[in-house]
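Progress against Task 2.4 (sequence-to-structure conversion) is shown through the following example record, which the project officer requested during the mid-term review.
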Amino acid sequence: MANETIKKFKTPYSNLPAISSETQGYSLRYRIISDDRNRVSHWSPIYLVDPDYTYVPGIIHFNKAGDIASVVWDAVTINKVDGANTYFIKKESQYDFWVRWDRGSADGDWLYKERLSTTSLSLPVPTTYTVNGVVQPSPPNRMSIEVYLPGYPIERADGAVGTPFLKVYRLLNQTV
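Structure tokens generated for the chain above:
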């Protein structure tokens, strides 16, 4: 039999923090406060809430004009699948952008560019790039990019086992 004094709490998606890129979920703990706010419980243990989201990316485009490399991508749709039903959560508006400049067979270092609140970015082609932290004197002739959904901590993977589930777009070795 249900107790009528038990209250449920729901928080909208917009109030949730960035998803954990390490645990692939939300860390949640709570405490109970009496109605008159005179009594407070201890904090609960920390629980991992698996959001079970489905990320639906679109198309990504690369273009180079002069010394400017431009990337444009479709907004990612976030859905929640529950049995046979799919619920729309939102169109993502923020992305973490990683870039790698390289030349020939020497793969450059992946560099975190920034968290963007848009679905496009234009970058000037640099005059130098780094390989294993060492600055190379010649300009790069290739560019690779990866676009991730925002998470905490900000991280990327090399595409091997354990690749973060937040990676939504990847373009490799585009000629600049």
